[in-house]
Amino acid sequence: MKLIRTKERGAQAAAATLAVLEQRSSASLDRVLPAVTRIVADVREQGDRALLRYATKFDRLPSPQSLRVTREEMAEAWNGLDSALRDALSTAAKQIRRFAERQLPRSWNFSPVAGLTTGQLVRPLGSVGCYVPSGRHPLPSTLLMTAIPAQVAGVARIVVVSPKPAPETLAAAHLLGVTEFYRLGGAHAIAALAYGTATLARVDKIVGPGNLYVTAAKKLVAFDCAIDMLAGPTEIVVASERGNASDIASDLVAQAEHDPEALAIFVTTREELARAVIAEAKQRSRTNPTAREALARNGVVIVASSADEARDLTNRLAPEHLTVDTTRDLDWVANAGSVFVGRWSSQPMGDYISGPNHTLPTGGMARVRGGLSVNDFVKLITVQEYAQQGLRALGSKAARLAEAEGLTGHAEAIRARSNARRSRA
Question: Are strands 235-239 and 180-182 parallel, antiparallel or unpaired?
Fold first, then answer.
């Protein structure tokens, strides 16, 4: 891990490093965009013919008949798990569901003036596609994190796609009662979800993280099918003045093991703690080649000149995962995907079982949005109802605003209704 100081002789180098970190994008897509563009176009134009060709090539699909996972296969996978893992998945699902239920927005209405009632209706999306990666590691947790909020929202059709799905992922699908599951991954899976084929009907929205090809495909289809966000490599920032070096290093290594491109940063004012964390992270990553590579490439320890500067730097980084010392620190946190408070709040607990979603904004997008939630699966429809009294109270003011904008038809529509109601009265 690289140590930088924001004061004295290290200030210039620190500023340059921080500028690069702030400008990081969700993914460097230029390298794969030409190939992804071709794949998406092929599936959009040729449907199943292209989809099955790419599935055979990239997903090693044994036969067209095996494209859709049967309920029996999912049930068999569930029955094949040991009881401890079944219990862990069930507990995680329960935690995630409870949190999503608390997040769910409600329909409401009120009367701001006599004769006018306004409000909102909360309605679920009609269909969603949940992308569950299956690369370096099986990720049944991602299936739980994407499908459960959709279920809580009331989405009628939930489609899961995953390339070469692991038994644990199939088992998680059975636990949730998923009925539509396809052995698909990559850009061709995203294209099929966005545009539909004879086998796989299109969905209204695509959610879930994926590799560079998946991210590029989501970007390409975003004008035709809603997406959640463009996910890049995993990020962790720990901002601590009094933390335990072993605890901090263990979380840095844990998130770094996701991907060689993962970003791991520790921010503090205490150089002694900074050096202890570097030593601990080196020791803990000795037998973890992915984490070791990520820490060597993207591991940074920042020694700030003051607590205020450390806080400002942390918000500028807008990390996916952020750990702070105490609940008092929440007062200064402005930009983060998910926050972990105190020594006992190990970040991997949030990856699996706490309840809040682990599908989180990366690449600095935490400046403008939070993680995936039940809100991503509903739409808010506003409602307004006027009575004669309300139209009389507000109509002339609305007509005046319309005239100020030069929209005389708007003004006449308001006045015609007002006059008609007066004549009837």
Answer: unpaired
* For residues 218-239, average pLDDT: 96
- CA 345 to CA 45: how far, in whole Å? 49
- Give me the domains of the chain, ranges plus CATH numbers: 2-26+232-355 (3.40.50.1980), 33-113+120-228 (3.40.50.1980), 387-424 (no CATH)
Residue 9 has pLDDT above 90, yes or no: no
Which one of 257, 293, 320, 358 is the catalytic residue?
A: 320
Asked which of 19-28, 159-168, 222-231, 398-407 is least confident by mean pLDDT, the reply is 19-28
CA dist., res. 347 & res. 321, Å (int)? 8
The active-site residue out of 321, 403, 410, 412 is: 321
Nearest by Cα to 333 from 312, 302, 354: 312
321 is catalytic: yes
Residue 425 in this model has a pLDDT that exceeds 50:
no
Nearest by Cα to 54 from 73, 72, 67: 67
Residue 68: strand pairing partners: 182
What pTM value is reported for the model?
A: 0.93
Q: Which residue has the tokens 């008092």?
A: 328
Q: What are the structure tokens assigned to 391, written together? A: 């139209």
